[in-house]
Amino acid sequence: MLQNIPTHVIGGPLGAGKTSLIKRLLAQKPAHERWAVLINEFGQIGLDAALLTTDADGIALGEVAGGCLCCVNGVPFQIGLGRLFRKARPDRL
Length: 93
Hints:
InterPro entries: CobW/HypB/UreG_nucleotide-bd (IPR003495), P-loop_NTPase (IPR027417), Zinc-reg_GTPase_activator (IPR051316). Pfam families: cobW. Residues 6-93 form the CobW/HypB/UreG nucleotide-binding domain. It comes from Pseudomonas amygdali pv. mori str. 301020. This protein is an alpha+beta fold and 93 residues long. The chain has a domain at 33-88. Helix content is 33%, strand content 15%. The protein has three helices and two strands; from the N terminus they run αβαβα. It has a two-stranded parallel sheet with strand order 1-2. The radius of gyration is 13 Å and the shape is globular.
């Protein structure tokens, strides 16, 4: 059964502090919750995923590479999001 999942959408240009903000949010995750992070990488190399890699329990990372989400990655984003939901069953995205 699908349920509403609290979701944060964080966007901005390169160097705006998106990764730093996500790292701070992840550091405050309640121990009993499962969180998932889906990263839209602009380049072909996943730098943000490498920076956000964590050993913390209850945090799952997914990635959609190769371009702007709104322009070129609509379907890959939907697929990545579906996979992440099935794998992680998150309380928050």
